[in-house]
Amino acid sequence: MLNKAQKILEQFFGYSSFRAGQKTVIENLLHGHHTLATMPTGGGKSLCYQIPGLVLDGTALIISPLISLMKDQVDSLLTLGISATYINSSLESKEQIERLKQLKAGAFKFVYVAPERFESYEFIEALQAIKISLIAFDEAHCISQWGHDFRPSYRSIVPNLRKLRQQPVKVALTATATGEVIADIQELLHIHPKHLVNTGFARENLHFHLEKGVNKEDFLLNYVRSHPKESGIIYAPTRKITDRIYQLFVDKGIQTARYHAGLAESERQLAQELFIRDEAPLMVATNAFGMGIDKSNVRYVIHYSLPMNIEAYYQEAGRAGRDGEPSDCYLLFSAQDIQLQKFLIEQSQMNEEKKEREYAKLQDMANYAYTRRCLQRYILDYFGDEKGEENCGRCSNCCQEGELKDLTKEAQMILSCVKRMGERFGVSLTAKVLKGSKNQKVLEFGFQNLSTYNLLPHLTEKDITNRINYLVADGYLSIQDAKFPTLKLTPLAYDVLTGKAEVWVKVKANEAAKDASHNEELFDILRGLRKQIATKKNLPPYLIFSDVSLKQMAQVLPAHPWEMLNISGVGEKKYEQYGEIFLQTIQQFVEEQGIAKNHGTATSLP
């Protein structure tokens, strides 16, 4: 069966080999083992169930919490000649009944459904009538009560599945799961520890950047203007801020779409279509957008402000570079972002226990904004991923230039002050004491009499606050209560206080250079051709060929069908549909430009 899986990989999807973890997951499913796959966004999770679904008899059932993702995945399968459909609330009642009828008749190899379908007697009845090859839980963190995007309707599927006469193999897939989330999913779906597949969370093509203290609107305008041909997403924390940023770009004549829950369904759908089809290269949105968008050529994601937690941030940032190409993830941070997120948590309908967990997660997110460590490494440590290098060499912290600065003496003053204040107060009051403030609270507690009072008069309170936050982020201080944070010394702090450890920091960031080995002019021509075909067929451009495939074409300059079939993402099915016209376009460009090929490289003829 694995030989058949390999053949399907090549023929339908145009890849010669499996990515990390894919082969193991597919083998597990073909041998009937329930499996949990934790892979980074863009790591090829969908192939983990699509290929077994094509190998095994029957219909594969894919459970997804996202309507937009279903449509994208179904469109993608249909372009490859694979029978697929979706059943969700976006369909009229008559259409749902028709698709259930076709489902009973075994018309589909893949059916994508929303979790709510399992509360329908008619749907369960339809499933009883067919052979189910496998059941896949996409975005599986939604099933866990500890997941950052927990959906009760998603979790209730499990008891409903037990009503089925047949119990097919199950696979759960996620890109963002902490240890407790993984354990919860494992218990719910009865997954043996041997069948946990974790390829790590690292995204080696992503460059993470932190920008603090910048004028956010100016930064956005400058960045978007300097990347006019690239597709990007800007995430904003509220609808109001989303509308303001959207209007900013519209007023500057920049083609932009927007998406948030306050817009009509038809407006959201149109915005999504414009973005997916590259009609509007820029999307400004709240976090309601994007988790289910299978758009491979997003080159940058910018967070206007601090997200609520690391899981949400990594998932949203992970919309960039799904095709494996170098892409940028920016977080624009200011201290008031934390207060906004606290307000949003307080105003939510969560119970107090859940709120406390969210405050703690927000503190982890704030620590990310202040850390001087490698940003990718910070995220990997958060997820308990010990794989990969200590420093990614790509993020803004790793790429900082300038001399190292010794902050040991200032750190000792700060840590000593926290200790003398009884480890019972927060960042703000500690900064005031160190600054020598005559604030009423400082005087009330008699902190003006401490030996650490006014130890840092040459710094502003903001500078002292930043240094305290840095010490929190890198583990010298801990926060005891995320809602009403109090500072406490850690073992690392005692090493600094006793002179066993030093504290050093660097200064400014450089942008990572991007690969430009392909012919940029030809790449633009191929993108234009892809857009024409996509418009004619009413499909998103990336479903024709990905940016990775087009760049490889513009680098290799294939002259024969067999060379075209060696391009990543160009399988037999895709070549039958589009290969010839792309081949002709490339050869026409080569002749017009007088380009000679030499062992896979191209040079201009004299």
From TrEMBL:
Catalytic activity: Couples ATP hydrolysis with the unwinding of duplex DNA by translocating in the 3'-5' direction
Transmembrane segments: none
Ranges of residues in domain Helicase C-terminal: 216-363
Cofactor (UniProt): Zn(2+); Mg(2+)
Top-level class of the enzyme under EC nomenclature: isomerase
Keywords: ATP-binding, DNA damage, DNA recombination, DNA repair, DNA-binding, Helicase, Hydrolase, Isomerase, Metal-binding, Nucleotide-binding, Zinc
Example GO molecular function: hydrolase activity
PROSITE patterns: HELICASE_ATP_BIND_1, HELICASE_CTER, HRDC
Domain of life: Bacteria
Residues covered by the HRDC domain: 516-596
E.C. numbers: 5.6.2.4
Start and end residues of each Helicase ATP-binding domain: 26-195
Protein family membership: Belongs to the helicase family. RecQ subfamily.
Name recorded for this polypeptide: DNA helicase RecQ
Record organism: Ammoniphilus resinae
